[in-house]
Specification:
With 183 residues, the protein is an alpha+beta fold. It contains six helices and eight strands, in the order βαββαβαβαββαβα. A four-stranded antiparallel sheet has the order 2-3-1-4, sandwiched between helices. A four-stranded antiparallel sheet has the order 6-7-5-8. It starts with a strand and ends with a helix.
């Protein structure tokens, strides 16, 4: 498994966001993971690469975006399940206990998801970033109840700069109807 670093700049302007994404990719040897508008009129840029390149790229984005930056992060050695959950390609085999962390920014939710995945034996089911959510974001995870509880607690504790956590929930035994909607 190759460990990767991811970085993010979340902006309050779509035009500045598109320009920032372009300059971030040109600034260093990074790969664009996400470059898209989100609600409410924000723009999310997520890149990956080695730590030095990601750091340089994010610094370029922060400088260019200046007044429009809502949130940002750099996560060295991101957990391997974060990017698939973010891109909607996570494998969803079975739902045991269900954990949810909801945040005010997309960037803070990715930080929470990474910390949660590293804290316990959980599977990230989905990481939804702001689209259709009024700027909020959430991560869903599953596993045994105790693992989900510790992961939700660890993930929520990792959210600092993006504002408080909106909610953190653990459902020990989700209904079959709910599980069908999530798989």
């Amino acid at each position: 498994m190759k460990l990767r670093t991811i970085g993010c700049v979340e902006l309050n302007s779509i035009g500045v966001g598109i320009q920032t994404a372009d300059e971030m990719v040109k600034a260093a040897n990074v790969e664009l993971v996400i470059s898209r508008p989100t609600c409410p009129g924000r723009y999310l840029v997520v890149i990956t690469g080695d730590t030095g390149a990601v750091t340089s790229s994010v610094q370029t984005g922060l400088h260019l975006g200046a007044d429009m930056v809502v949130d940002s992060f750099i996560i060295p050695n991101v957990h391997e399940s974060v990017i698939p959950a973010m891109n909607g390609t996570a494998i969803r085999e079975k739902i045991n206990a269900l954990g949810i962390i909801e945040t005010y920014t997309a960037a803070s939710c990715v930080l929470a998801a990474d910390a949660a995945a590293k804290a316990g034996d959980v599977q990230l089911v989905e990481l939804r970033l702001s689209a259709g959510l009024g700027g909020k974001a959430f991560v869903l995870m599953t596993g045994e109840v105790s693992a989900v509880q510790s992961s939700v607690d660890a993930g929520a504790a990792n959210v600092t700069d993006g504002g408080p956590v909106v909610s953190k929930i653990v459902i020990p035994s989700p209904s079959d109807d709910l599980k069908k909607q999530l798989l």
